[in-house]
Amino acid sequence: MPAMGDCCSPRGYRQVFSERTARAEASRYRRRGLDATSRRIFDLLVGQGVRGRTLLEVGGGIGDLEIELLKAGLAAAVNVELTPTYEETARALLRESGLEGRVERRVLDFATAGAEVAAADLVVMNRVLCCYPDMPLLAGAAAVRARRTLVMSFPNERWWTRLGFSVENALLWALRRQFHLFTHPPAAIRAVAEGHGLRAAVEQAGTIWQVTALDRAS
Q1: Are 149 and 122 in contact (CB under 8 A)?
Q2: Is domain 16-156+184-216 annotated with CATH 3.40.50.150?
Q3: Domain residue spans in the chain?
Q4: What distances in angstroms separate CA 64 from CA 13, 54, 68, 84, 143, one per listed residue?
Q5: Are 29 and 65 in contact (CB under 8 A)?
Q6: High-pLDDT (> 90) share of the chain, %
Q7: How many angstroms separate the Cα of 6 from the Cα of each of 3, 13, 72, 133?
């Protein structure tokens, strides 16, 4: 597996997850609400109960899922981003929703943050693992901070998903983007989380994105 410096530089992340991308995502959210994968995660968490709970979302982008969960009764949320490019747009959405005081947004490398990021009842990583080369490090960091539930979405193992990601990586290489997408094996992702005391509770197949929820073993 390539190291971070071999494929995914800070400049590369900013090229792909840019201010322009953030504005486009916010515009879509204002018009249409959560996308399909985020809606699946929302429904899963609300079905289990979010009232009074705390959320840590890693790579939550514009924070649309956090906003919807707060409206559904979540107590507070922390969002951690690797680059600052989404911050202005995310804060504008929070102001529009009247929820500024209930979300803390931080910019740092979550996988190596250590004690800088506290645990939460719920931890979410939605389409994040496919953007980070060291899956065990990132998934492990999320798992140890989940007091109750960890929910992740990541690419499934179907042939068309792997083909699509290969084509997209070829395009990124052709455009000289310092960024790479990964299709980490779902079984390996689950194994990392289970190694930190979680157990698989929900597995939702999808055309491209698989959603997995793991609960803290009692």
Answers
A1: yes
A2: yes
A3: 16-156+184-216
A4: 20, 16, 6, 16, 22
A5: no
A6: 72
A7: 5, 13, 41, 10
Q: Is the pTM of this model over 0.85?
A: yes
Tokens of 34: 């959560």
Q: Indicate the DSSP class of residue 80.
A: E
Of 1, 9, 3, the residue nearest 172 (C-alpha): 9
Beta bridge partners of 126: 153
CA distance 143 to 125: 10
DSSP calls for 162-198: HHHHHHHHHHHHHTT-S-------HHHHHHHHHTTTE
Between the CA of residue 115 and those of 104, 119, 144, 153, what are the distances in Å?
Answer: 16, 9, 11, 25
Asked whether 138 and 188 are in contact (CB, 8 A), the reply is no
Give the DSSP per-residue string, 148-171.
EEEEEEEE---HHHHHHHHHHHHH
Secondary structure of residue 114 in the 3-state scheme = helix
C-beta of residue 30 within 8 angstroms of C-beta of residue 98 = no
Mind listing the pLDDT tens digit for each residue in 92-129?
999 999 999 999 999 999 999 989 999 999 999 999 99
Q: What angle do helix axes 87-97 and 64-71 make, rounded to 10 degrees? A: 20
59: left (phi over 0), alpha (psi -120 to 50) or beta: left
